[in-house]
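Field reference: sequence -> structure
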Amino acid sequence: MGDARTARPLRVGIVGMGQRAAIARHVAEAAAAATDLEARVVAVADVTDHGRERARVEYPDALVVAQHGDLVGAVDAAIVTTPDWTHAAIAIDLLRAGIAVYLEKPLAITVEDADAVLNTAAETGTPLYVGHNFRHAAVVRLMRAIVDRGEIGQVKAVWCRHFVGNGGDYYFKDWHADRAKVNSLLLQKASHDLDVIHALGGGDTARVVGMGSLSVYGDVTDRRDRSGELMGDWFSLDNWPPLEQTGLNPVVDVEDVSMVMMTLDNGVQASYEQCHFTPDYWRNYTVIGTEGRLENIGDTGGGVVKVWTHRRGWDVAGDREYPIAGVESGHADADLVTMTEFLRHVALGEPTTLSPIAARAAVAAGALATRSLRNGSVPIDVPPLPAATIAHFSTPTPAVTR
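Structure field:
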């Protein structure tokens, strides 16, 4: 295509002006940091009056419309940050219209819908990128580097405990608490960690078993409709203890504690545990290999990853300790890297570090673990993708012509 500065700037649209739409702010930052990329947000679509008003305030020069279909002809790429149950239908419409898609994770809330999105991208050839930003988090990059250097030998097991201390505010006061709209928090929340487990383990889940229950928040009777509000309107660390939460979503039927057992397609054994009523909020990974193990203490800047490579008894020090860089809370740094990768992929045809096939693997693990836990914890095998779809995502995608 040549130098992107000599072509029309990449026209980017946003679909959904909810809490997660903040990632679109990185479009300008990514373009400003590059000498060969020009991109800007030119349009926003949101079905709600509140969302469109937020769009007019944040992007006063942008076209603001009600439906994602109204973006056709106005944008080259779209960032989809709508609620989870709408991801598949919106992405398929945009891909068929030739609009490159950044789809916020999870890719979809069922394996069937995830496959439909990938198959559409393969059939149309339109670029698809899924925002699994945690792949780019400093703690994950550090753990992967330790594994890739062979410090713990060949990986045989990966464990993750996720203490979701903000769970009551993040997931039980709006649509996230309704399984009809989210399926399970093993998708909305755990898809990050299931993806990282796959990355650290070097394979994708082949068989999965789930267990879980709604153990605490189902007992909270104070409920109300929060239409028009965003999570920032009600979030507070003072909302504690969990049983004293107020204003939960009218429907609360997703599990607040879940456990997943996985066998990856390369034989690695893995597990994931998630709890939404802990006092602390962080992820703890343990990766065990044939010559040692690693474990992170903290998952943002200021934390460390420790490595044990000699036999001994109880010892918290380990043999080596590596500091975790990056921001001290949240994932703004990973969001910027993710958005930059998407824009460069679309505008310049550069390869990405995360294939949509990996995003589908995370959905498959989470969705089928949910099916398992709700059906007596029966083991479920992950079905394969069509060969043509796999082949499509194994070849480079050209830049969008503008």
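Note: The longest helix spans residues 356-373.
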